[in-house]
Design a protein that fits this description.
By secondary structure, this protein is α+β, with helices and mostly antiparallel strands. It has 26 helices and twelve strands. The protein has a four-stranded mixed beta sheet, with helices on one face. It is globular.
């Protein structure tokens, strides 16, 4: 999402609040940290495998998944809970029309009805195909693209309403580059063997999709080749992903008249009207050169090519909700070729995940009542406050920052709002209609509601109480425009500690470091640091401090550029630097907070491990994720997060305390010399 940095990880390794307060050394419960250690690997050679290797060996990646590990275990737990909500709702015969359980039940029921799905095939899209076939000119292309934005994907470009980066109290219209079917522009141009293979398979996949739409083999192949040429042109004029990270360079506010003049072949009035937007005066364009190029393509590519482009984007974005043939064709490319997944998840699991994705606001209201332990908010707030306090201490002691900048940094830190557990008020979904006639139509209806909800923000004040995640979403985020961090309640779950309180080494490495410390650091990473305490793009740094700061961030870019993640693919240090800075700052803050606990100060030994060892092993446990090579390659090309292994190795090798805890010395593979270690916050 725009402006929200998602940390795709395990965030809160915690306990069920109502359980007994005893650590694992005081009970008969085996200690997960010691059980996961692979003693055949030396910590100085590969700490990630040393800490997690035994679990990986005993738990191979399931054929239906692209990874396995702690995240998957917790998501499975959440899926099982959401499944209970879905199944009980679907079984109700007298659910009140318009109620949460009626909508959840009808949505879930249609997703499980494979007989109807296979019988109907693509016929559920016949009206949409007819709309596309009837397009007579470029205005029709633009109008249909606006419709698809509301129900199935984002053809042509990215378009949304959100907080104005420079006036955070107001909502603005944003237009940015997009419109591609592959995950990133790199896929259209990289020359390594994997990338070349993927492009070939993609063209085959597109042709197969058009065959399912009724095209004969020759026409399907020609259409696929034309679509590939169009998307390659769009990709060529797209900025590299690392170049889209800078909010200042990607903020270009212009009047609607200027937009019309710069792109005369894109009828913005038609698009805005279809999107339900009135009285538009200004827009924020992310990449003006992209829109200029796209405007040219509107004429240089024939109308039929654009119509086929819209058809493909429609089917690509609805394939998961259609018949088995269409679904499997999409799965074979986007899951197997791109990410190495061998077989689909069971239908129930796919439908549970989609129900949660489309109706998460409704499910969340049931979830917090039936599954979220009491006291969740209070415990998360307690740990977050502890980390915030340590952060203030660290800022005050920085030797490279002036007092003037420290004062403003502390002002921003003190202004950070922590939203934890679940929202105090819920969105009104009464206008969203669900029935038992069509799974695909139900998904499109949910998408339409969400689109309308976002568009309706234009011209209204920003609601700073709003959440952009559900309480059952295993994730967290920092929103620079609100200067807030959000930690959903389900992060309370942890396999292995269901009946006991995890010790502070784990609580402060995972909740303290990987959650609160990480998210707070996003407010001070290379891009988040450009926003002030009110969430506005505003340079609060002295010129000298800014130079010192970016000298330090260049060091972490260099560090991660040196890691080879898979094949010959290096991590993109420029693209991932925001997350890498947040990981490093987070674990350092977690460690400083942990040093204040009784466990650390009394040097308590648990399962043969001292406090420092448990803290760093706990951090590795938080990232205990085994990923397929294909999934790692996809992540390196298109994602701002480094692969899990390097989110452990990277920040830990910048901490001298880690080396001393495990006897790692110069000459060991994990060793980094003092001058190479990165220290920012």
């Amino acid at each position: 999402m725009k402006k929200i940095k998602l940390l795709s990880s395990v965030f809160c390794l915690l306990f069920f609040i109502g359980c007994t307060h005893q650590t694992n050394n005081e009970s008969n419960i085996p200690d997960p940290l010691s059980l996961h250690i692979d003693s055949t690997v030396k910590p100085g050679e590969d700490f990630f495998l040393f800490a997690n290797g035994k679990w990986f060996k005993e738990n191979p990646i399931p054929a239906s998944e692209q990874q396995n590990g702690l995240w998957q275990l917790i998501r499975d737990t959440i899926n099982a809970q959401v499944r209970n909500i879905c199944e009980s709702s679907a079984a109700l015969q007298t659910a009140e029309k318009g109620s949460a359980k009626q909508k959840i039940g009808d949505f879930f029921y249609t997703g499980l009805d494979s007989v109807s799905l296979n019988k109907n095939g693509l016929s559920v899209l016949k009206d949409d195909f007819a709309m596309i076939d009837s397009i007579k000119d470029l205005k029709g292309v633009v109008k249909t693209a606006a419709y698809l934005h509301s129900v199935a994907g984002s053809p042509l470009f990215v378009f949304y309403v959100g907080q104005d980066d420079k006036i955070s109290s107001k909502n603005a219209i944003f237009i940015a580059q997009g419109g591609l079917s592959l995950p990133d522009r790199n896929y259209y141009f990289d020359t390594d063997a994997r990338a070349v293979m993927i492009r070939g398979k993609f063209t085959e996949h597109v042709a197969n999709m058009f065959k399912l739409m009724g095209y004969d083999e020759t026409k399907a192949k020609q259409t696929a080749e034309s679509l590939m040429k169009l998307e390659t042109a769009i990709a060529k004029t797209s900025r590299k992903k690392e170049d889209t990270r800078d909010p200042l360079k990607n903020y270009n506010k212009i009047t609607i008249q200027q937009l019309n003049e710069s792109t005369p072949d894109i009828d913005w009035k038609v698009f805005m009207d279809k999107a339900g937007l009135k009285n538009v005066d200004t827009v924020v364009v992310g990449q003006p050169e992209f829109l200029t190029a796209l405007n040219g393509y509107m004429k240089t590519f024939p109308l039929d090519v654009w119509k086929n482009y819209l058809k493909f984007h429609l089917v690509r974005n609805t394939a998961r909700y259609l018949d088995d043939k269409t679904y499997m064709e999409s799965f074979s490319f986007y899951s197997t070729v791109l990410r190495g997944v061998k077989e689909p998840k069971p239908r129930w699991k796919r439908v549970v995940e989609q129900t949660n994705g489309s109706l998460g606001e409704l499910i969340g209201q049931v979830y917090i009542k039936e599954y979220l332990p009491k006291g969740t908010k209070e415990k998360l707030q307690e740990i977050g406050t502890a980390i915030k306090s340590v952060y203030a201490e660290r800022i005050k002691k920085l030797d490279w920052m002036s007092d003037a900048t420290k004062e403003k940094a502390l002002k921003k830190l003190n202004g950070i709002v922590m939203k934890v557990g679940y929202p105090d008020k819920w969105k009104d979904l009464s206008a969203m209609q669900m029935d038992r006639s069509s799974y695909c139509k139900n998904v499109m209806s949910a998408n339409q509601w969400q689109f309308n909800y976002v568009m309706a923000k234009y011209g209204k004040p920003v609601d700073r109480s709003e959440w952009d995640m559900y309480p059952q979403t295993y994730n967290a985020y920092y929103n620079p425009s609100n200067n807030e961090i959000v930690v959903p309640g389900c992060n309370i779950i942890v396999p292995g500690y269901e009946r006991t309180l995890a010790d502070d080494a784990l609580l402060y490495s995972v909740i303290g470091g990987s959650t609160f410390g990480h998210e707070i650091t996003h407010g001070f990473d290379d891009q988040g640091s450009k926003y002030d305490e009110l969430g506005n793009l505003n340079n609060w740094w002295t010129p000298e401090d800014s130079i010192k700061f970016y000298t330090k961030t260049k060091m972490i870019v260099k560090q991660f550029n040196g890691y080879i993640a898979v094949d010959s693919l290096h991590i993109n240090g420029e693209l991932t630097q925001g997350e890498n800075i947040a990981d490093l700052g987070g674990i350092m803050m977690g460690y400083e907070a942990f040093k204040k606990t009784k466990q650390y100060q009394t040097k308590q030994i648990i399962a043969g491990l001292n406090p420092d060892q448990r803290f760093f092993l706990g951090y590795a446990l938080a990232w205990m994720v085994n990923e397929r090579p294909e999934a790692i390659a996809d992540q390196v090309r298109s994602n701002e997060h480094s692969p899990a292994k390097y989110r452990v190795i990277g920040p830990l090798t910048d901490m001298p305390e880690f080396f001393s805890s495990f006897g790692i010395k110069e000459g060991d593979k994990m060793w980094r010399g003092d001058v190479e270690r990165v220290k920012i916050w």
